Records
---
Amino acid sequence: MADDITETSQTVAAGQLRALIERIERLEEEKKTIADDIKEVFAEAKGTGFDTKAIRTIIRLRKKDQAERQEEDAILDLYMAALGMV
């Protein structure tokens, strides 16, 4: 009886593990598809004449809140002033 419970537990654990791995694999495939889509959009932007580096910077900045951006700008200004760049 104890062997049956252990075997059942192992079967359930193996099934759960397999399901988790398959979910991760599907998500990885979706991630790859999305990355390819993003790459295509950047290629389209470049083909239209937009600067993709600037677009990436804007996207990065839009992810941050205003206070965080202001703090980074202040530090950047301070460092540039210290180096005589402004």
---
Amino acid sequence: MKTNPVLQSPSLNLSGDSNAVTTYKRDAHNYITQMFAEQMPAIETGFFNAHMSKNIIVQPHWHTNVNELVYVISGEVVTSVFDPFTQKLMSYRLRPGQVSMFPKGWFHWIVSMKDNTHFLTIFDEPTPDIVYGSDFLRFTPKEIMNLAYCVDEQKYAEAALPIQESVILGPPPGCKQAKSSTQGKNSTHRTVNHTQGTAGQGKNIPPQGVFHQSSYGPQGYADDDYEWVKASPYHYYYPHSSSHYQP
């Protein structure tokens, strides 16, 4: 049996404080801390410690080298992951003590459904590699989006303009939700007020879509702005024929 050489060190430390290192801080109520090998070399796993308010999202991303387990301590979250084999988006609503998994390389995100939500994302390697969806969007040239997907270059450039840095907890600061009286009671537009840079300073990006609330969500969830089709307890799918954001 191979022994980890770290365990043979005379200065071995088998304890640590996951609150000591802040990975990302959006504001006082939304931040992520961590515990990985850099802090405690003896650890053979690692985790992020996430604190989030309602409707804050761990933005879409994927990991090239780890599987991930989400464990809820308080509050509620919805985890969503794209299954590349079935071509389905799988979403799970989790309460304290419940878990869901993201296989290595699968595109996923996490939405907080309540204030004061606290959860762990636990990995099977000491340090995860992360590819952020925000980086994919802001660094892909508009010409490539047009060539690959026939997306209008100017519209794509305008849509991606608010993403000025790697976003871990979204929406980005400055993003505002404005109710539209012409779109119906349950419709919401997202607009972004730019406060940095000269290109978009003082301007609002036109709404990119309408956020629809479903009339057939699980009982008790009708006011949480999420669209669900019930598949099994704690397991919900988005309607396959529609998108979360409708143009």
